[in-house]
Here is the input.
Amino acid sequence: MRSSDQGLRMPRKSPYRIELSVNESAELSRRATRYTLPYFEVVRAKMILMAADGMDNDEIAARLDTRREVVSQWRQRFFRERLAGLEERARPGRPRVFPPRAHG
Here is the structure.
C-alpha cells in the first residue's frame, strides 16, 4: 500500500442485497416520513430504503449519523426477516421499570 492510499478505505460491499416489493417500498416510505412514529422506526425505514437504492453501509451510516455496524445489523435483519425484522424485540435482562417514588 502506498503512503498516499493509507487514508482511503474501499467501501465494504454488503452480501445482503436489498430488493423491495411494491408493498414493502410503500410501507417503508410511509414509515420514513412519519413524524409520529418513534425515531428508531423512522431511521430503520430510511436505512432499508437507502440500501434498496444501492447505497453501501458506510454511506448510509454517514447520511444518518450512525455507525456502519448498526446499518449492517438492520440490513441483515431485513434481508432475513423482511418488515418483521425491523420490529423492536424483547431485550435480555430486567425490563426498564420506574416505580412511583415513595414520599416520606
Summary: The CA atoms of residues 24 and 82 lie 8 Å apart.
